[in-house]
Amino acid sequence: MKRDRAQEIIEGITMTNVQYHGFPVYLKKINEDNETVTVFPLDEMDHEQEVDLDGLLEDGPS
User: Which pTM value belongs to this model?
Assistant: First the structure.
């Protein structure tokens, strides 16, 4: 996923379905220093992780 699209999803008012290697995730913030994104799985919202933008895939709006 491109950084600009990830930022649009983060700032958007609607929920956009995004997956990280097949797992649905919520995008929290972009880490500008290393082009990664802080995400958490939708089924484990207390399990934040930092992932590469390349591993994210947008499914479309819910």
Answer: 0.85
